[in-house]
Amino acid sequence: MQSTPRANRLHIAIFGRRNAGKSSLINAITNQPIALVSDIPGTTTDPVFKSMELLPLGPVVFIDTAGIDDEGEIGRLRVQKTKEIVERTDLAILIFTDENDYRLEKEWYQMLVKRHINVIGVINKIDDHFLDIEPLLMEFDIPFVKVSSKKLININTLKMAIQTYAPTEFERSSLLGDLIKPKDLVILVAPQDIQAPKGRLILPQAQVIRDILDNHACSLTVSVQELEHVLTMLNQKPDLVVTDSQVFKQVNDILPSDIPLTSFSILMARQKGDLAAFIQGAEAIDSLKPGDSILIAEACTHHALLGDIGREKLPAWLTQKVGGELDITMNVGNEFPENLSKYKLIIHCGGCMFNRKQMMSRVVQSGQSQIPITNYGVAIAHIHDMLDRVTELVKTS
User: For domain 274-388, is the CATH number 3.40.50.11410?
Assistant: First the structure.
């Protein structure tokens, strides 16, 4: 319950052929029997995640994957699942065996490099066989570490390599730490409607509260119904108000114009994605026509209830803005369409369940397809003609 959310951890994925020792390696690194180990090729089917603290690097998550050489119809599905892991990988470990043909390893190496992912080569099972590293150094421009997962040889050396080659800044360290000062007062408007999880706050709200505390500022959380009353009670103006995007208009009508306003979703856009691209993407809303195809994407697979923002509120606002019905496709979870050409616009959730690498992979894919992309908060602000108002502070940071 007190651990760092997986989405905020450095994602380290282990790739290699079946029976190359991926599961044994992750067990050796974590010093725990996390992954099932067997001499039978193809034991690992679905990705296995293990969160841990890798000091001095900090919170990380290791991902054990299926073999890149898996075969058959089911095998191809497993390989596809492994390819999906690439989209959220911050640092890759590519295992080499005593194969004479490294065609597959070259393909995966090129795939990783194309996505600007640092790669560490690992020669495993050095207690069982010898593998000449010189030909590999000529073929792959990456650091190599020789290890034995079984006898724990050079595991610490591999951990040091991970610390050396991990991206220096894989995620913004703070959601709003650069927007506030110690002792600032930040009001958070968190609607407690039917969509709010009973007995707890949603993840972005909890993360923003923690970030305010970490930056020695003061947090005051209210529902939209109590906002006006709270403002009259205070003997000072709040330094910032952060609201749920779906009540932008209500909050803006209550709030004096000289008090900075933004949303949880926009703060997430700064941390996880590309705020400038999202602002530019929102402009595409103005050119939409009835019948145009829109993709609405959500990272998590929550159970939709009455008044769901992605399935009901946002489509209704878009329909009103455009003046007619749109052809809206809902995409949920880690899978994402490869062909985006049919869509006029992509609107993504804040992505609190994604790491930055996974969210940015979708931003990059939309850019390559020349399809504008925005997110919930930015889109809703644009629809209500208040985008400049709610991005004024964050655009200058």
Answer: yes
